[in-house]
Amino acid sequence: MKHPLIIGLTGGIGSGKSTVARMLEKRGYPVIDADLLGHRVLESSHPGFREVLEAFGKGILDQSGRISRPKLGLLVFQDPQKLETLNSISHPHIARMIEKESLRLAEERSVEIIFLEAALLIETGWQRKCHQVWIVNSDEERILERLALRNGSSPEEAKQRISSQLSPGKRLPHADFILENNGTPKELEERLEQVLEGLDEKI
């Protein structure tokens, strides 16, 4: 079995990495969404559910007994130590699921390229498992606008979320390609097409 090329796709909150992921899927590229896998860790059927509950208490549950991601998010994004605790629980589970899904795609679909979309690709060290790293980057002003439209976040709330992640100065040096996203979706798509053309020529 030929091992596929793994490309890490990351960027700060509101940068547009999920938009790029959807563009890639539209073109037929498989995308593993690490954030979605992280949601699975919080499901009651997953072993991580009990670990998270033991760490943070029943106050994070909703009325149906499920972990409320808004409640959990409010708790951890205000306290770096609690965020670190959550990450130490969830990231090993997510890493195993990424490995399992990569193997499944390689065996069942014989794909040549797999994209790994992960907000914390650099922070977790997962970039070391990737052949390339693509980073979607935006100015803070644009990010604040998007978060206000998407989540109804106030500038203060949005800046708190931004500050909990790596700064561009620490993230961008890891990039093989940088997709600047300060213009229109069409401009972003055109830049993506240019990068993909160069990638296809190398395979």
Descriptive report:
The protein has 203 residues and is an alpha/beta fold. The chain has two domains: 1-30 and 113-202, Rossmann fold (3-Layer(aba) Sandwich); 34-110, Rossmann fold, CATH 3.40.50. It is 56% helix and 12% strand. It has helices at 17-26, 34-41, 47-56, 69-76, 80-109, 121-124, 140-151, 155-163, 168-171, 185-202, and strands at 5-10, 31-33, 113-117, 132-137, 177-180. A five-stranded parallel sheet has the order 2-3-1-4-5, sandwiched between helices. α2 (34-41) packs across α5. The relative contact order is 0.21.
Keywords:
alpha/beta, globular, about 10% strand, 2 domains, five-stranded parallel β-sheet, Rossmann fold, about 200 residues, 10 helices
Provide a compact summary of the structure.
By secondary structure, the chain is an alpha/beta fold. It has helices at 17-26, 34-41, 47-56, 69-76, 80-109, 121-124, 140-151, 155-163, 168-171, 185-202, and strands at residues 5-10, 31-33, 113-117, 132-137, 177-180. The protein has two domains: 1-30 and 113-202, Rossmann fold (3-Layer(aba) Sandwich), CATH 3.40.50; 34-110, 3-Layer(aba) Sandwich (Rossmann fold).
CATH class value of the largest domain: Alpha Beta
pLDDT below 50 for ≥5 consecutive residues: which ranges?
Answer: none
> Helical stretch count?
10
Strand composition percent: 5-15%
- The averaged pLDDT comes out at 90
Order of helices and strands: EHEHHHHEHEHHHEH
Query: What is the CATH architecture assignment of the largest domain?
Result: 3-Layer(aba) Sandwich
- Measured as a percent range, the helix fraction is 55-70%
Query: What is the assigned CATH homologous superfamily of the largest domain?
Result: P-loop containing nucleotide triphosphate hydrolases
Sheet with most strands: 5 strands, parallel
Strand order of the largest sheet: 2-3-1-4-5
Assembly annotation = single chain
Q: Write down the Rg.
A: 18 Å
- Tally of separate domains: 2
Q: Give the strand tally.
A: 5
* Shape verdict: globular
Q: Could you tell me how far the N terminus lies from the C terminus, measured between alpha carbons in angstroms?
A: 16 Å
CATH domain topology of the largest domain? Rossmann fold
Content-based structural category: alpha/beta
